[in-house]
Fold this protein.
Amino acid sequence: MAAHRTAVNAEIDTLLQAYPANVQILARQAMEMLREWLPNSGEGVDSSARMVGYRYGSGYKGMVCTLILSKSGVKLGLVGGAALADPHGLLAGSGKVHRHVQLRTVRDLQQAGLKQLVLGASAACHKRLDQDLEKS
């Protein structure tokens, strides 16, 4: 497990090198936050898509959220975000399934309702995985 963690850290370091310092700091803070909010989740890097994903199982059904990097900030993509309650109006995007929260500064990580959105996406992920187990 430690070897896997080291490999993921190296991939994250490589991915972040292409971005300005403020985006690197924001991404690292967001990753730290997600590791805390999603204990025991898997963390993986998709370099070609410039994102870091968090999951509890394999395939799409096991995915909770992603951090999508750009030169101007980080988008916190929530799988099934269109179905999540969003009383603080944080979600953006027009997809039928997915939504995201635009993060431009570290302060954006403190927005009211952000943790609830991530935990809602996590609960939905666990529900999808449990339904798959019931079908087996």
The chain has one domain: 2-135. The helical segments are 2-16, 21-37, 114-135.
